[in-house]
Specification:
mainly alpha; Herpes Virus-1; three-stranded antiparallel beta sheet; two-stranded antiparallel ribbon; 22 helices; disordered C terminus; ubiquitin protein ligase activity; RING-type E3 ubiquitin transferase; zinc ion binding; transferase; ANK repeat
Length: 502
């Protein structure tokens, strides 16, 4: 009888949790606020089966305000679903750069890999060519220095004067491999995302990285394939030209003995055979990527330390931000010293896509007032650092009327627990507390604590990333990921599903 009482409590928690999931998925900010004010622990709720949390749903749908609300309620920003995907991965897959910006500001872990394919958030962004998401993911690696592009191109050696720049760490992350040795550059080249290919190359992606044998359908191209082999299979002429201009080999053979030209012919990409047949006589001039944004590191650091969501109206006696005309100016651009609020400065850096700013260095953004090249921002004197946001305990609570708590074992009590609306719950000590452990040991000596957690409804939504192998996907351990029987990262083009969720 006591067990059924706990199950009734779980059903009640599940009802509130499902309401929060619906609000997160639909973008209902007011509903989400009301539910979290009632019980902040609902932020930890996850659906049964795929184990997607409200944070996953809001990130996948692009509701960045709800993402912020959930994080402030204490949810683990790096929470995984059953496939090992984080909210950052799902936001990158669907190209919701505002969600990515929010998660990066809250210091989400960009190095996490999913259980299914070993891909990072960078792989998810590169798969569908979401270039804004790519540069936001790398904001902490790209210094706000005017000579960054020249350093990456080998035209400058003055990187020793930039303490925030670790070129080897940037290169390691950009060239990180998923299952099968696939890099983000492979995925962008395969799917014909020329802008993403261009940006990744400017950020140190290697044109000579090759895939490895793992028994998946990606071997239709062949193990040992370079990004140019993948670009030839995808058939995008611009991707091929950019890779060749950056030094990709036209004669490199993969494990099948195929060159990029042979791959193009086997996939009937006749329109790029001329590009892959002979290297151009003259040197192709490649301009810097229009998606470089050098001020990102400086403004993100300021936003993390001093806040970025201030909604206070600027007093009439103080000039407001010239972009939004609402908030008080908090940062200024180096050089021209024009002032903006932090939120507008973040927006300028995240949305800019200008390749040249005369006479600014590559990667600078134009000032909206004077067109001066902005390389970095600095805070206006008088700002004070913000304190860390208080995080609510995420331990799930039980209803006080549960038979396990009040000692009642009657059938009427159980019926009341099953039918009683969940918003009358009161909290008891968290699951991890000593008082609850003592209580559970006395009442249920043989029951594991995980059976008391909230239970969700079965979820039948398909995997956000299609795997080429049939059968069910199981969460794998670290030792399994090192095995040679890895599954392929993404379905092989043209089978690759690049449709974006809305």
């Amino acid at each position: 009888m006591g067990f059924l009482g706990i199950m009734g409590n779980s059903f009640g928690c599940s009802a509130s949790g499902e309401r929060l999931v619906s609000a997160a998925r639909d973008g209902d900010l007011q509903e989400a606020k009301a539910l979290l004010e009632y019980n902040p622990r609902l932020a930890r709720y996850s659906t049964f089966g795929v184990r997607n949390s409200p944070l996953h749903y809001s990130a996948a749908q692009g509701h960045h305000e709800i993402v912020s609300l959930l994080i402030e309620s204490g949810v683990d920003i790096n929470l995984r679903n059953i496939r090992g995907q984080t909210a950052l991965m799902q936001a990158c897959q669907y190209g919701h750069w505002e969600v990515v910006q929010t998660l990066i500001l809250f210091k989400a872990n960009i190095h996490r890999t999913d259980y299914l394919n070993g891909g990072t958030a960078l792989h998810f962004a590169a798969l569908n060519g979401h270039t804004r998401c790519i540069r936001l993911l790398l904001a902490d690696y790209i210094p706000s220095a005017p000579n960054f592009w020249n350093m990456m191109r080998g035209k400058s050696t003055r990187d020793s004067s930039i303490p925030d720049f670790d070129k080897s760490a940037l290169s390691k992350f950009v060239n990180q491999r998923a299952d099968g040795g696939i890099t983000a550059l492979h995925m962008s080249a395969l799917n014909g995302h020329a802008e993403s290919v261009h940006l990744l190359l400017d950020l140190g992606a290697s044109v000579s990285e090759v895939t490895v044998e793992d028994g998946s359908t990606i071997d239709l191209i062949g193990a040992g394939s370079t990004p140019l082999h993948y670009a030839a299979c995808g058939g995008n002429a611009v991707c091929c030209q950019v890779l060749i201009a950056r030094g990709a080999s036209l004669t490199a053979e993969n494990a099948n003995g195929w060159t990029p030209l042979m791959v193009a012919r086997s996939w009937h990409r006749n329109w790029i055979e001329g590009i892959l047949s002979k290297r151009p006589d003259g040197r192709i001039k490649i301009l810097p990527s229009p998606y470089l944004s050098l001020p990102l590191m400086s403004i993100i650091r300021i936003a993390r330390e001093f806040g970025w969501r201030g909604t206070n109206q600027s007093p009439a006696c103080i000039d407001p931000c010239v972009v939004c005309l609402e908030r008080r100016c908090t940062v200024a651009a180096e050089g021209c010293n024009h002032e903006f609020c932090t939120r507008c400065a973040l927006y300028l850096c995240s949305t800019n896509s200008t390749s040249t700013v005369v006479p600014g260095p590559p990667g600078s953004i134009p000032c909206p007032l004077c067109r001066h090249a902005i390389v970095s921002f600095f805070k206006i004197p008088g700002m004070s650092p913000i304190r860390d946001l208080p995080r609510t305990s995420l331990s799930l609570s039980l209803c006080a009327t549960c038979p396990a708590v009040d000692g009642s074992d009657s059938t009427a009590s159980m019926a009341t627990q099953l039918c009683k609306p969940d918003f009358h719950c009161t909290r008891v000590p968290p699951l991890g507390s000593s008082s609850f452990r003592s209580l559970s040991c006395q009442r249920f000596p043989s029951m594991k604590l995980h059976s008391m957690l909230c239970m969700g409804v079965p979820e039948t939504s398909p995997c956000l990333i299609r795997c080429c192998r049939s059968g069910s996907s199981l969460r794998r351990s670290a030792s399994q990921r090192e095995s040679s029987t890895r599954s392929c990262l993404f379905a092989f083009s043209p089978i690759v599903d690049t449709s974006n969720g809305s």
